[in-house]
């Protein structure tokens, strides 16, 4: 009988041309002042937007310090967004493990570790981001407990049922939701919590508006309709416990950003999309059953 030998090779992290294009975007989109100058405020580098009212006094007063005041304020609103996400994870014990699916430069993961003291693993398909975030964890001397990996959130390779919580902080528009929730459902322990913050298009107003299409084009992403989230979660044993419409809470962030020296040109598309009701900023918390 012929003997067959099989070698087990890890599948490549980047599977499709689209994933390669997304990785290339984040690998080369490094000098973005809107993210770097904000992160420089306290060493937490975010790749998500902000929530809450801004202090209008940052726009007035001494012109020499105006830019620094606006940057601090935008950063404060982005950090408040991550706090809101972490609030919805509930009580997490120090011996639990959390997953940051699409971890960017690591800001939310470092905050999660700071709050819960637990182990956090972040995955991203940008090797540049892995290096940046691991350096940030080392600078805070938490690299034993907070680790970033060059892995695909659709197929992380982590052990089944090994996570108590997982989140996606504005990353789901880069992936197929069924593939993602299949993987998160596998990774979460029974009763584990998933928290999603996302921008989604409004099924009620029909197809993708011009403003939403502009956002997709700007970031090379595919914004999903609101209904797609609930269908995909239901199909993969993720049962929503909380749904919060954060649209009104994020508009001030975009208004301030539009007036700021770090505006990138995409601000008007967000303000139009939110203003016309074709787009919502949503938080969904769900339990793995
Ligand atoms: C912000 O990243 C988030 C995304 C690019 C994902 C798209 C999110 C939507 C809600 C549609 P960033 O902080 O790198 O963006 P920017 O450089 O514009 O601040
Ligand atoms: Mg940003």
The main pleated sheet reads as:
7 strands, mixed
Shape: globular
Spatial sequence of strands, sheet with the most strands: 3-2-1-4-5-7-6
DSSP helix fraction:
40-55%
CATH superfamily: Vaccinia Virus protein VP39
Residue stretches low in confidence (pLDDT < 50, at least 5 long) are none
Total tally of structural domains: 1
CATH top level label:
Alpha Beta
CATH-defined topology = Rossmann fold
Attached small molecules: geranyl diphosphate, magnesium ion
Average the pLDDT over all residues and give the rounded result.
96
Strand content: 15-25%
How many strand elements? Answer: 7
What is the N-to-C order of secondary-structure elements (H for helix, E for strand)? HHHEHEHEEHEHHEHHE
Q: What does it look like?
A:
With 289 residues, the protein is of the alpha/beta class. It has one domain: 3-Layer(aba) Sandwich (Rossmann fold). The protein contains 10 helices and 7 strands. It has helices at 17-28, 33-39, 63-87, 107-116, 127-139, 177-187, 210-219, 226-235, 247-258, 267-276, and strands at residues 97-101, 119-124, 146-150, 163-169, 188-201, 238-245, 279-288. It has a 7-stranded mixed beta sheet with strand order 3-2-1-4-5-7-6, with helices on both faces. Helix 3 crosses helix 4 (107-116) and helix 6 crosses helix 8 (226-235). The longest helix has 25 residues, at 63-87. It is globular. 42% of the residues are buried. The mean pLDDT is 96. The structure holds geranyl diphosphate and magnesium ion (MG). Geranyl diphosphate is lined by residues 32, 34-35, 47-48, 170, 173, 199, 215, 219, 221, 223, 264, 266.
